[in-house]
Amino acid sequence: MQDTWAFIDWQSKRARYLLQFTRKPPHPYLHTYSSVLAGTLGALASVFGKLGFDEQALMLWLSTSLDGASSSSPLILLARGTCVGMMLLCNVAMTSFFIQSLHQSGSLLATVINTSISFIVTGLAGRLLFKETLSRQWWGGAGLTLAGVALLAGCAPATKTGSEEEMNRNR
């Protein structure tokens, strides 16, 4: 009986040893994808929020397809409700991806990339969708922000030290 347990223990150790060579290393930029996606979804949520709660923005957006429609028409109310629902959906998805990015890269890197991308995408959406003007100063700041994000994205996320891994195993 003791020989059987020794054999099982040996097989378990052998399997763990072989498993360490079969794991593929993560992609070097994997830790930033979730942060970028979270920032983009946050910006989309703000666009849907503006369309859902700002009657003038929605009427400007729909002015070509709804000539003469009043702000209380059922179609406008349906469009506003849909925009509010999409805003909530984008916020839920953004939160999910942001939490995933926190686990992948840590709080500092995830927060900086998420906020930066959200800032840039919101500005571009305002320019493209609502015809807002963006100054040269904004474009310069956006360029510097993207350069900073590119530098941060190239950084490897912090790894746990041996004592932290040991503490996690003992829990």
Key traits:
171 residues; 7 helices; 0% strand
How many whole angstroms does the radius of gyration measure?
25 Å
Shape summary: flat
Helix proportion of residues, in percent?
A: over 70%
Q: Label the structural class.
A: mainly alpha
Main beta sheet: strand number and arrangement?
A: none
What does the average pLDDT come to?
A: 78
Please count the helical segments.
7
Low-confidence stretches: none
SSE order, as H and E? Answer: HHHHHHH
* Strand residues, percent: under 5%
What's the count of strands?
Answer: 0
The span between the termini is 31 Å
Briefly, what is this?
The chain is an all-alpha fold and 171 residues long. It contains 7 helices and no strands.
Summarize the helices and strands and which ones pair or pack.
Elements: H1 2-22, H2 30-53, H3 55-62, H4 74-105, H5 107-130, H6 136-153, H7 162-169
